[in-house]
Design a protein that fits this description.
single chain, 295 residues, mainly alpha, DNA polymerase, domain 1, hpI Integrase, Chain A, 2 domains, three-stranded antiparallel beta sheet, 58% helix, elongated
């Protein structure tokens, strides 16, 4: 199993498939894990891989307790890989043909009420560098629905404070532009004017730690956890909870699904539709409570 093939494939999904950064990383990780499985089971070449081997591999992931969504993505990664091998005459047939992905249950995302969001976002008091930074991050996260990987990747010059716009890089060639709300802009103005003046270089990170380095994903999670505890909110809150809450609150207040899809950066609108279910779910509960004699 040539390392050259793997290098060429990773270049292919990056340069030709134009996958988003998160998807690219997941596909790369999936296929390297699958390759390791083949080597461990003494499969000498990709042309020796058949449907049974792939099914057995997916079953091993299930036994390890992997989520259905993870297994489905792994199959999608393997399918993409074998299509590449087939197109380059490295294998004669695609063993993933007619293999069906396991059905994933669409779970209603956990969200915060607007009061809980306001309570959480009011915790940093902007008295020092950390609180000013944290206030700006939390306000921006709820104002835009960014993924945690996106918010820590923002550079100073990705934000136009005058126009109130944020450019989010999706891959080497594409980006999406998101409007920023008034309260988030105020928090960002305070942070940038004092701690991150915009005469920095294009690649200068917006959100930094005490050492001056780009804030890490783990660092951001700790910040969320700290303010959740401080606000005494009895829920598990992650950066994605604010992303979910942002989407549901937009839909509840009349935003159309297509607009929310574009802001969130979903490639498939069916992913965005789950937020309308969450919105309707709360509405149905209220109607039920008011209408059912034994509710």
């Amino acid at each position: 199993m040539s390392d050259r093939i793997m290098i060429d494939y990773l270049d292919y999904i990056k340069e030709e498939k134009k996958l988003r950064k998160n998807t690219l990383e997941a596909y790369s990780r999936d296929i390297l894990q699958f390759r390791e499985y083949l080597l461990e089971h003494e499969i000498k070449g990709y042309e020796d891989t058949n449907k049974t081997i792939i099914i057995t591999y997916l079953m091993s992931l299930q036994k390890e307790g992997k989520a259905t969504s993870t297994i489905s993505r792994s199959l999608a990664s393997i399918r993409c890989f074998f299509q590449f091998l087939l197109n380059n005459n490295i294998v004669k047939e695609d063993p993933t043909l007619n293999l069906k992905s396991p059905k994933t249950e669409k779970k209603i995302p956990s969200i915060l009420t607007i009061d809980e969001v306001n309570l959480l976002l009011s915790q940093p008091k902007s008295k020092n560098f950390k609180e000013t930074r944290d206030k700006a991050m939390l306000e921006l996260l709820y104002a835009t629905g960014l993924r945690v990987s996106e918010i820590i990747s923002i550079n100073i010059n990705d934000i136009d404070l005058e126009l109130g716009l944020l450019a989010v890089k999706e891959n080497d060639d594409n980006h999406r532009v998101i409007p920023i709300g008034t309260l988030a802009l105020e928090a960002l103005n305070s942070y940038i004017s004092i701690y991150r003046p915009k005469d920095k270089s294009d690649e200068e990170p917006l959100f930094i730690n005490y050492s001056g380095n780009r804030l890490s994903r783990q660092g951001f999670w700790k910040i969320i956890k700290q303010y959740t505890k401080k606000a005494n909110i009895d829920k598990i809150i992650t950066p994605h909870t604010l992303r979910h809450s942002f989407a549901v609150h937009l839909i509840e207040n009349g935003a159309d699904i297509k607009t929310v899809q574009e802001i969130l950066g979903h490639s498939d609108i069916s992913t965005t539709h789950i937020y309308s279910f969450a919105s309707n779910d709360e509405e149905l509960r209220e109607v039920y409570k008011k209408s059912h004699p034994r509710a």
